[in-house]
Amino acid sequence: MSTGVIVLIVIAAVVIVLGAAVLALRARGGTRGSRGLKRRFGPEYERAVARHDGDTKAAERELAQRVERHGGLRERPLEPTEAERFEARWTAAQEHFVDAPREAVGEADRLLADLARARGFPDGAQYEEQLSALSVHHADHVQGYRHVHRVAHAPADGSGTSGTEDMREAMIEGRALFEDLMGASDKQRVGRS
Q: Domain coordinates of the chain in residue numbers?
């Protein structure tokens, strides 16, 4: 082979390797760009932008930091007996809502914290950190936990805005996160068998 052909082959190989590296970086960094973060965080993205008074760059930095901190978290599957206990607790909280809505929402708050902890998220005693981790892995439903927690910790003296309808809505939104966490565990259990 002539030197010119060898040089062309080497240049072509370098171009192919560089092209593959650029594509790999784009795919891996997809959650860092605006579109990737919007897609990953959904409504949580808009909430972060609003919390930063419309400053998308600040919101994106915060969300990227969440991904960096919690993106590698591996959710632990629940054992069948654990899953049954959580299901029974949620059912009991829903049934209790009719007679004592505030207590039922308080139980739902504790239950979501316990379920998240059991799945491998930070302990519920560190609510903000647990919420942050949940937002990375369950962004579409984390608002339900936030709503349940806010209502559960609102003053019981009537000065808060947590009427029965607000508590009912919190339970419905919280149920979506509960089902998401339980469903993710079901998928992992099935994958192991």
A: 3-70, 80-192
